[in-house]
Structures are given as C-alpha cells and as structure tokens.
Amino acid sequence: MKIQDLPTPALVADGARIESNLAKMAESHPGASLRPHVKAHKSTALAKRQAAHGHQTFCTATIREIEGMAAAGLGEDLLLANEVLDASRLGEVVRRGARVTVAVDSEETIDAAVRGGVPEVLIDVNVGLPRCGCAPDEAGALADRARKAGLEVRGVMGYEGHIVGLADKAKREAGCETSMELLLGAHADVGGDVISAGGTGTFAANRWATEIQAGSYVLMDTAYAELGLPFEQAFCVVSTVVSLAPKGAGYAIADAGLKSLGMDHGNPQLPGGRVLFCSDEHVTFVPGRAEGDDLPSPIGWEAEPTIRVGDRIRLVPAHVDPTLAYHERLYVVDGEDVIDEWPIDLRGW
Amino acid sequence: MKIQDLPTPALVADGARIESNLAKMAESHPGASLRPHVKAHKSTALAKRQAAHGHQTFCTATIREIEGMAAAGLGEDLLLANEVLDASRLGEVVRRGARVTVAVDSEETIDAAVRGGVPEVLIDVNVGLPRCGCAPDEAGALADRARKAGLEVRGVMGYEGHIVGLADKAKREAGCETSMELLLGAHADVGGDVISAGGTGTFAANRWATEIQAGSYVLMDTAYAELGLPFEQAFCVVSTVVSLAPKGAGYAIADAGLKSLGMDHGNPQLPGGRVLFCSDEHVTFVPGRAEGDDLPSPIGWEAEPTIRVGDRIRLVPAHVDPTLAYHERLYVVDGEDVIDEWPIDLRGW
Questions:
Q1: What is the pLDDT of residues B319-329, one digit of tens each?
Q2: Is A157 helix (H, G, I), strand (E, B) or coil?
Q3: Which residues of A are less than 8 Å from B309 in CB distance?
Q4: Average of per-residue pLDDT across A342-347
Q5: Among residues B71, B42, B90, which one has the least CA distance to residue B215?
Q6: Verdict on whether the full-model pTM lies above 0.90
Q7: Which superfamily does CATH assign the domain made up of A3-10+231-343 to?
Q8: Looking at the domain that runs over B30-213, which CATH code has it been given?
Q9: Can you tell me the ipTM of this complex?
Q10: Does B159 contact A at CB distance below 8 Å?
C-alpha cells in the first residue's frame, strides 16, 4: 500500500528515521541507562523496537500503559512514573509476574502501594517543576516510612520538566544541574540504586541520573525540533485535501483537525504551506511556501506548486504525545510505501 | 457505584441535565427540524436518547460515525456533512439498507459519491466560514452536474461557523441572516427540500434553515456557556488529586491532562479553583475560589475549603468535542450515583 491509499487522517512515521533515532539514543544511552517513556507513543510495537535496541526497562504514565506493556511481554522492569491512589490493578500485574515500581510522594501514595500489592517504589522528588514530587528534604522520611511499611525503595526520581524545553542550551544545562543537585541531595537521604530523571530535552545534559526517562526522541514534534537535538522529525499526520476555497481565495481544506492533532502547543506546521486554523475534522491552510519559510520537509515531501482536491498534505503536530493518543494506529513507511502498521494499543487509563 | 469510586480521569455527565437539554431543544426544534450532530458526543447511546426525543435524522462528520450510527439501527437518514474523496465505505452502508446523504462542493466530490455508490447529496455552500463549500453562485451548476451524474440532490447545506460563537447576540443574529441569505440564494438555484445549517450557537436565530445541525447543546462546554443559551453545562472530567505541593506552595496536582481534555480553546475551568497548567496526564491547580470567581458549579459540586490527596475535582473542558474523542466511555450520574455507562463508540475515522 502507498501513503496515497491510506484512509485519512493517518498517523504516518518514517521507519528509517525511527530506527536512526533509536540507534542514536541507544549509542548515547545504552541498555538500562535509558528507561524509554512509552507515554510518548503508547505502542507496544514501538516499545519492542526500543527493546530490540537494548532497553529492557520502561517508563509509563498510566496504569493502562503498565497493563499493556506487561501483557505484551515487556514487563521485566516497569516504572509508573506517576502517583496513584488505587494500585490494585498494578498489584494484579505484579501477581502475573511482571516487575512494577510506582512513584510515591506522600503517605497516601505509599499506603496505596502497600494496599495494592506493589512491592517496589521510587520516592518522587520535586526538583522545580510545579507538579508531583515531595520536597527534597522530606524524601528521606518518606523512604523510611515506605520501608517500615514493607516496601522496597529503589531510589528516587525527579523530573526537570520546567527546563527540558528551554531553547537556550546553556540555560537548559544549568537548570538541569540545579535540579539534579536537589535530586542527589534527596538520594543521599533515600538510598537505593536508582536516580531516574530527564527527558528528550535533557538526555545529554543530565549526567547525574542513573537512567533517563525519554520518549519523544523516537518520533519528535515541532516543540522539541527547536532544541537542536540529534533526532529527526519522524512522524506526521497525512491528510487529504477535500475542498478548495471558492474563486481563488487562496486557501484549501484538508481532513485532519482538532480530533487528530494535539493542540496544546498550537497549530501543526505544514511544510509547503501555512495553517490558518483547525476545526474538529478540518484544517484550513494556504498552500505554497511563504517568504522566509524555513520548515523542514517531513519524510522527504515537497509541496506541489498548486494543490488539487484529492492531494495529500503532511502536517507536523506541535506536540507528539496528545496527537498519538487520538489515533488507533501508526503507519510505518519507507518512502511512499506503507511497510507496517503498529497499533496505538496503550491509550486510555 | 459512586463518582468517588470511578477510575480517573473519568468523563462524567449529569443524566437529568442531559434530559433537560434534550427536551428544551426538542420543544424548540421538534423532529426533523433538528438534525442532531453526533460529532459532539460520538456515542450511539446518546444518539438513541436524541431519537427518543423525536429526532430520526442525524448529522455526522466522519465515515466512521456513519458506519456506527447505521450499525446501531439509527440509519433512517444520515448526513455526512463533510466532503470525502473515497465514498466506498459509505456505499457499503447504503447497500446494507441505511439512507446516506453526503455533502459535495466540487466535481471531484460529486464523482466520489457516484463512484462510491452514495445516491443522495447536498450541495455544500460557503456562507462565510473559510472552510468547505462552493461559492454560492456555483451551487446551481454543481447541482446540475450531480443530477446529470445520476445523483439525487436533496438541497443545500451551509454552516455559519464563523459567527456561531459570537458573544454579542445581535451580531450573531445579523451574521446568521447574512449567511442564510447566501444559502437561500444558492438554494433557489439548486432546488430540493433541504436547507441544512446552523449549530448550537444559532439554533434559535437561524429561522431560514429547514433543519439545524446542532450537537454541543446536549453536553455544552465553557465556550458555548458564554453565549447565554438555555442549555446547561452537563458534563465534566472527574480527576483525582494525586499530589500536593511541598510545604504549602499552594498548588495541587490531579490526574487529568492533555490526553483527557480538548485543549484548542485553552485550559479547562475548575469551579472552586484555578488551573495553572496541564501536562500529559496532570493538571496543576490552585484550590479555592479566587476573588471575582464567578464560575458555575458543575453538577452541584462545591470545592472543599482544603484539598487532600485522594479528593476528586471536576474540570469543565473548554471544548467538548475534542475532549470526548479522547475517552472510551461517558459515565452518566444522578447526584453522586453512577447510573449508566455509555460507550464513546464513534471515535476514529
């Protein structure tokens, strides 16, 4: 099958670019020094490619992701890098033979791990991002409490998410160091082998973590594309032009929209055109490159000088994770040939 | 089951408010004068409630929605209010006994209807929104062409989407009239019984259409809530507080985020609190009402003066349609009791 024959909107990824991104990361962070974050792609098929590149430990954001990874035979060492108040489904995964570790940052989440039957935890430490995590100087006491409750405390995690997107590399690196000083301080109180942190934006800068939680590096998006990372944009949303503006008003309409694109970082980019706005199932765009356009072409595609009804366009979503969560499958391509189809099988909660 | 027992994030709707909204619309626009748009809720269970209120004709935005509605026995008169270049799956639905009409606005889309075996069309007319639709003065020629190709032309459709969200009622009404003058002009050239237009924002103002395509009125969202419509906000996303900020920093974190909330209209509202930002699976918020807050309480809920880990919060998404598209089911509640569970079974394409 060719890209041109896919029902649209279709999530399409370049197989060679995925392999290149996987290989670059595996060379830089081999084996367990990377804990690939599956929230970015929600696909056990893609996780198996990460396993083929030597990574056997995985990071997740939802209970469903843990369940799906274990069911797919990828349960050697699964971390739920998130707090839960009901760990009973995680306990069930453990009883079926997978290794599950859950993040805790409070007495309530420690109690939930005990109640649910999850034997191992990481103490989640707030290192600057206003999200989950205890204060660094409270981590030791929480670890003591967890151990008294019978849990194995494997170490700490702390996500420097407030700085992973900084465009200024020096600021990103300095911010990372500041955050990791906090995390190492907490680790000194907590103990354990694991210092889990980082993301695609800081995978290289973060020299302190024992494992990096990166996910976006496989597919990339426009937000991360601005950081000068070694990974290539590898996916796009293919959409069919279904209508042209009346009488040369200069815009066209294609069949991808708010329900096929993560919109929290704004409109998708359209190499060879300008997106005007998105509706539920439509994108209205102006074909043709404007002066000053400097967008990379996704998957080797160049815009036609004119556009016709039935043409395909290729949109680069601003944010990969919420985009993937709308789609049932990812089509893997080699040039114009569709060579594989990977279910996005870890959606939902 | 109680709301407190639901796995979160959970899409929750108030059964009584849904029924009230359905009844108000059915009284104002009985039977076929409303063509409920299922894209807003993507649930055949909810569509069956609309049918119970007397509406047997439905509007859709995707081929999947047509297939699902027909399979659920709701195929008496289905309109795909959207252009498609491959109508073969629609033709299959027709061959199985459903009535399907598809919008066309070009030679290519007329040819696709013929090729796919869809016997009936509406001429889609651009009435001001820069999206699909032919120029009003081209509609007659397209209708001629469609009829020559053997299609039944049932009439016209034209969506005044550029003005349905105008907060100023007088401007909304004037804009609606201007758009409908264009549509009536096109209809004079096209013929047929159907003039299909409108939406929740203009259901009352649009006195020219023979049928109104409204969908959001059933559940509502924060965008439509500002228009002074008679419909009540009927749904929210219930989320569990999983973490508190260290040492009284004043924020808390709950487990709903970019993958459970449509974000194109911005952050969700939190009655009894202020949303700071959303991540993939988290919302960081400040509990408690700020001075000047004037948010309605969703489903009768008032914020606790203090918030604890394990509490539930109720977020009102800014845009209903892309929010629903992330969820597998809608929980229907009566007070705190969960009384039904409706699959969101029309997702995807």
A1: 999 999 999 99
A2: strand
A3: 85, 106, 108-109
A4: 98
A5: B42
A6: yes
A7: D-serine dehydratase-like domain (2.40.37.20)
A8: 3.20.20.10
A9: 0.93
A10: no
